[in-house]
Amino acid sequence: MLFGKEHVKRYQETDGEVGHEWQGTVTLLLTTTGRRSGQPRTTPLIYQQEGDAYLVVASNGGADEPPLWYRNLEANPEVRVQVKGDKFTARARTATPEEKPALWKKMAAVWPQYDEYQKKTGRPIPVVVLERA
């Protein structure tokens, strides 16, 4: 199973030829700025496209704490995104309560475990919208 640092490395080396398709779904690379370190942090995430934007889910496997990448983008919403060979700057925002039900349904359709993750935690799991800057 390819994920984590090796996934990032192979995705970057091959412009997503290796790593874009993963366990029956697709992934992008999200690079945030560490809120404490100021260093770039790159994470492979399952995504779906929504118009010109990309959607990702801050599930952290249903843990009670959000993933570090989400905390980083809360501190600095300007991020870098790579989808296959397409690399761009984006602004990240949490989907509004009005947007979230439809966007959640779209994401859970490609990764049904999101519904299980939500059952494991009391925190509402955010859907993040990545809009090209």
TrEMBL record:
This is Nitroreductase family deazaflavin-dependent oxidoreductase. It comes from Actinomadura fibrosa. InterPro entries: F420H2_quin_Rdtase, Split_barrel_FMN-bd. It catalyses: oxidized coenzyme F420-(gamma-L-Glu)(n) + a quinol + H(+) = reduced coenzyme F420-(gamma-L-Glu)(n) + a quinone. Coiled coil: none annotated. The lineage of its organism: Bacteria, Bacillati, Actinomycetota, Actinomycetes, Streptosporangiales. NCBIfam families: hi_GC_TIGR00026. Belongs to the F420H(2)-dependent quinone reductase family. Pfam families: F420H2_quin_red (PF04075).
